[in-house]
């Protein structure tokens, strides 16, 4: 199948129906053993140091891996994506546009998805057949989520990894389905960890994935990954068609819609606190003000930049935050 790069989660059902293999450039960037080389490629091309590392990493991953077609999200994602797309087009890369409408009206979502289907010359019946196929695979991620927050068997990192990987299914639907089946089977056999502090993680997926292992050193666990869970489309089974599925996807729309779902998960998962991760030089950092006004459990904001490991200062802040949560619970 032909490869096509993604700058964020888009209706992959359409791309797969059109015969493409979606490749999430974010995952290609951050999972590389030498991920910094992708940032260096972008900075040598003139990208400023005062720009989000994700944007530079996406650019470098696209160029270095010979991706010659991408889907660029023009509305509902990073504000820097538009200029990224301009630069990629100069490099001769074919860009297919897609937008999540700011209005968040079902009729507008339908219009954008229909435009996307027209671009790739696919019919709704073919897209719905793919959607059913993907729902089966996504079901395993839902099971891993339950094994995290209900049965306390999966780790926070596993919860993060296998949900975020559903943005492109690791470029191999059949292989990834088998992998998920095996992972679910292995996790079910574990004993529950019964941690004292139950955490939520909100914000863009982290550069610093060691966060999950670090908090578990203090009898705490992240049992809710907000955006990663949205990438797995946890409510897809409730949607009667692809239009409803992407209408009910919280990430690209307004904060009121997003926060309503966060509050629901706080209650369902019995969260003690939330870690809000923001990326340096990202406009989404300002959302911390809104979250702290609207959510009534303690929130710790941490910021990442180029490093894929937590720095000493951030570790101290997290440790102090977890101590505070233990005090609030009356634990010693």
From TrEMBL:
InterPro entries for the chain: FldB/FldC_alpha/beta
Span of the signal peptide: none
GO MF, one example: iron-sulfur cluster binding
Cofactor needs: [4Fe-4S] cluster
Keywords, alphabetical: Iron, Iron-sulfur, Metal-binding
Family, similarity comment: Belongs to the FldB/FldC dehydratase alpha/beta subunit family.
Protein name in UniProt: Benzoyl-CoA reductase/2-hydroxyglutaryl-CoA dehydratase subunit, BcrC/BadD/HgdB
């Amino acid at each position: 199948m032909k490869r096509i790069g993604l700058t964020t989660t888009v209706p992959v059902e359409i791309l797969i129906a059109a015969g493409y293999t979606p490749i999430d450039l974010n995952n290609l960037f951050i999972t590389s053993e030498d991920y910094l080389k992708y940032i260096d490629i972008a900075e040598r091309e003139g990208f400023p140091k005062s720009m989000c590392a994700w944007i530079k990493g996406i650019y470098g991953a696209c160029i270095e891996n010979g991706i010659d077609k991408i889907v660029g999200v023009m509305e509902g994602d990073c504000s820097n994506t538009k200029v990224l797309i301009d630069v990629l087009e100069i490099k001769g890369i074919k860009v297919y546009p897609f937008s999540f409408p700011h209005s968040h009206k079902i009729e507008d979502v339908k219009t954008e998805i229909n435009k996307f289907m027209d671009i790739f010359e696919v019919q709704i019946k073919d897209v719905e057949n793919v959607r059913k196929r993907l729902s089966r695979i996504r079901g395993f991620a839902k099971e891993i989520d339950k094994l995290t927050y209900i049965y306390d068997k999966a780790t926070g990192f596993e919860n993060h990894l296998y949900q975020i990987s559903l943005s492109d299914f690791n470029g191999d639907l059949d292989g990834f389905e088998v992998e998920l089946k095996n992972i679910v089977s292995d996790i079910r056999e574990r004993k529950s960890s019964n941690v004292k502090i139950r955490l939520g993680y909100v914000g863009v997926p982290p550069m610093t994935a060691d966060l999950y292992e670090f908090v578990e050193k203090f009898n705490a666990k992240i049992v809710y990954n907000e955006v990663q869970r949205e990438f797995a489309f946890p409510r897809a089974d409730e949607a009667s068609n692809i239009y409803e599925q992407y209408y009910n996807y919280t990430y690209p729309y307004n904060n009121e819609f997003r926060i309503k779902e966060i509050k629901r998960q706080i209650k369902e998962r019995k969260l003690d606190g939330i870690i809000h991760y923001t990326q340096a030089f990202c406009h989404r950092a300002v959302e911390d003000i809104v979250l702290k006004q609207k959510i009534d459990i303690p929130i710790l904001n941490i910021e990442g930049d180029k490093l894929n490991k937590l720095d000493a200062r951030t570790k101290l802040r997290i440790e102090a935050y977890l101590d505070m949560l233990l005090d609030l619970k009356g634990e010693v």
